[in-house]
Each structure stands twice: as structure tokens, then as C-alpha cells.
Amino acid sequence: MNIVKIKGETYYIKDATNVGVYVFTDSKCLLIDTCFTRGQARKIDITLKKNNIYLKYIINTHTHLDHCRGNLYFQKNYPQCKVYASEPEKPFMENPYLLAALFYSASPLKALNRSPDPFLLIII
Q: For this UniProt entry, which segments traverse the membrane (predicted)?
């Protein structure tokens, strides 16, 4: 993965779902969305570190899993990272199984439910 400069301190990391990056003067950054898999999130993390950029914040534009499931990796590895999302997205981030119910009209048995853990977030 490569980090591509847009303008000023604004970049993106190209992937199946592009990830926005804003770098502050202290080399800490804000990610805009975090991708779908832990593997993708790990590659984003490696890309940031190779460029001496360190995660501080995440903003999720919405809760489609290809935009926010990478949060799980980052919150595990960066517990001090703050995650921001809008109020309407809160129920889906706190209860990810709701996405399956919404998109697939399904509510699987608990034994079959493989939904991710809830995200820790700050509502904006």
C-alpha cells in the first residue's frame, strides 16, 4: 500500500476502499474510514509507520463494514485512539449485527452470529 498526497497534509491510502489520512504537525494522524478486514487494517498500519505517521483519531463516514470494520484492529492496537461517528450511525456501531438484519432481513441465532465486537466511539 502507498500513501498518496492530495494537498497540504491530506493524503489517502489506496485500497478496495480508500482510506483518508490527515497528518497533524506532530506526525499524528486522523484516518477517515478504516477498510474491511484486519489484514487490510494491518497493512494500513504498516504504511503509516513506514511514513513515520502515528494514529490518533478515526472518523467513520458511515457504518458499512468496508468503511469501519478495520476499527477493531486499530482499537485493539491503539486503545488511546478515539473514534468519531455521527449520531445516526451509533446503533449500528454498537450493535454490528443490526447491519445483517437491515441488509439481509436476517437475525441469526446467537450460536451462528459472527458479527464483530461493538466499536468504541464518540458521537459527533
A: none
User: Cα 75 to the chain's mean position, in Å?
Assistant: 9
CB 3 within 8 A of CB 47: yes
Start-to-end CA distance of the chain, whole Å, equals: 30
Give Cα 110 distance to the centre of its chain.
25
The pLDDT tens digits of the residues spanning 40-99 come to 999 999 999 999 999 999 999 988 778 888 998 999 999 999 999 988 888 888 777 777
Within 10 Å of residue 7's Cβ, how many Cβ atoms?
Answer: 6
Q: State how far the Cα of 121 lies from the Cα of 84, in Å rounded to an integer.
A: 6
Domains parsed from the chain with CATH numbers: 3-123 (3.60.15.10)
Q: What is the pTM for the complete model shown? A: 0.81
How far, in Å, CA of 59 to CA of 2, rounded? 20
Angstrom distance (rounded) from CA 124 to CA 104? 28
